[in-house]
Amino acid sequence: MGTTHDSSEIPGNHGHDHPRHELSYYAKRIYAIRDLLLEKGVLSEKDIQCQIDYQEARSPANGAKLVARAWLDPDFKARLIDDPKKACVEIGIDATSINEFVVLENTEKVRHVVVCTLCSCYPRPILGRPPDWYKSLNYRQRAVNDPRGVMREFGLTLPDDVEVRVHDSTADIRYLVLPLRPAGTEKFTEGELEKLVTRDSMIGVMDPLSAPPPI
Amino acid sequence: MGRALRQKAGKFKPGDAVRVRSDDRPGHIRTPFYIRGKTGWIERVYGEFLNPESLAFGGDGLPKRTLYLVAFNQIDVWGKSPGAKDKVLVDIYEHWLDPAA
Amino acid sequence: MARGHHDIGGLPGAGPIDQTEHHLSDWEILADAVNQALGARGVKRTDEMRRAREQMDSETYRNLSYYERWIASLEAILIEKKILTREEIDRKLAQFETKWGEP
User: Fold this and answer.
1) Is this prediction's pTM over 0.90?
2) Using the 8-state DSSP alphabet, how is residue A121 labeled?
3) Nearest-CA residue of chain B relative to A141?
4) pLDDT digits (tens, 9 = 90+) for A126-182
């Protein structure tokens, strides 16, 4: 038989794996599919490892950099809204895999929230892999017709006169919410501001933090 | 309007009233069920994209289709709206849109 | 008008959002990476994967976990494209299971 690769470990995921024989029907099958694709030369081990490394390197920290810079620099904010992919290049974020990237700016009177009701479209290069709740059937069902209820569950209650704009991400556009800068952060450094920008505030279901998270 | 998204002219322009088609046909469709038959307006023109209805079956996605950001009042979609100004915005391809009065 | 089992925006009866995160298991990271790598190589397209998920039976769609759905649709597309066969996958898995210690 050909080489088997199933003993290879996934870097950065130590201590969270299950014994293989306890995995579900489909979970097991990905190991067989992977080996067959390698044997047939459809993929190389490097192809797969590159994708693992790429995904591990993506996290909401990328989005937080964009947001914090936009809060501090009005010119950057204008460029970020005008041409988000170019603004990513400016601060060293690789967004080339996004077909089109659109930034939605929150104001005192307008709030944005993003969902993909049909699957789970998400700006991965900017925010990493989507969180479980974003992919959940409950979120996909409710976000479009009960966005305020969803936000309340996340801890955000909005006045009735604020306009809530739900974006259903159904096509090639990937959306990032640019949240409002919290009050009282005028003296914060860029690094301190970045720590306030949570993933959920860039999806739009929550406000950013107003103080750095406890360590 | 983002530089990357400065559009080629499509059939519709921002502000145009549009009605989403209620087509019922097999295949891969990116127009959500809840928005079919609803009336809204063009918010932005995103330009031309490969057609997912073709790509989904191994096709080349051509001809490209103009994609729009279409806005709807919550009240017009669900018959209720907790905030009077709340909206749903959906990315919809041109062949799913008809002009509305 | 037909409504696909994936097309769930606004459906009534949804409960609260479970905000618990689970740490991805190796098999989930692998499913994600194989999927992305095949896309990068131009072997399959995201829209084909979506279509495969839409074509699976509805009970399976609702019962599988997220990455299980990905694997099921990936397998369907690879078989459709004649890159793999179900028998090959079954045979390979049988070899693994012997080694993994399952009867």
Assistant:
1) yes
2) -
3) B34
4) 999 999 999 999 999 999 999 999 999 999 999 999 999 999 999 999 999 999 999
Residues of chain B in contact with residue C5, where contact means CB-CB under 8 angstroms, are: none
Contact partners of B by the rule of 3+ C-beta pairs under 8 A? A, C
**pLDDT by residue (tens digit) across A166-184?**
999 999 999 999 999 999 9
Query: Is a pLDDT exceeding 90 seen at residue B7?
Result: no
Q: Which of C70, C94, C101 is nearest to A22 (CA)?
A: C101
SS3 assignment for chain C: CCCCCCCCCCCCCCCCCCCCCCCCCHHHHHHHHHHHHHHHCCCCCHHHHHHHHHHCCHHHHHHCCHHHHHHHHHHHHHHHCCCCCHHHHHHHHHHHHHHHCCC
**How do residues A102-113 score in pLDDT, each as one tens digit?**
999 999 999 999
Instruction: Tell which of B20, B31, B33, B75 to mutate to test the C interface (max C CBs under 10 Å).
Output: B33
- Taking contacts as CB-CB distances below 8 angstroms, the residues of chain C near A118 are 6-7, 9, 50
Total residues belonging to chain C: 103
| CA dist., res. C38 & res. C33, Å (int) | 8
Q: Own/partner pairs for C61-68, CB < 8 Å, 24+ apart? A: C61/C5, C61/C6, C62/A137, C62/C5, C64/A26, C65/A24, C66/A120, C66/A132, C66/A135, C66/C28, C67/A27, C67/C27, C67/C28, C67/C31, C67/C32, C68/A24, C68/A26, C68/A27
- B61 vs A64, B26, B55, C45, CA distance in Å? 35, 17, 5, 11
Report the distance separating Cα A1 and Cα A203, nearest Å: 47
Amino acid type, A154: F
**Under an 8 A CB cutoff, do C6 and A119 touch?**
yes
Q: How far is C57 from chain A (nearest CA, A)?
A: 15
Whether A119 sits among the annotated catalytic residues: the reply is: yes
| Residue A12: pLDDT over 90 | no
> A4: pLDDT confidence band, cut at 50, 70 and 90?
very low
- In angstroms, rounded to a whole number, what is the distance separating the alpha carbons of residues C6 and C62? 9
Gap between the Cα atoms of A10 and A202, Å rounded: 28
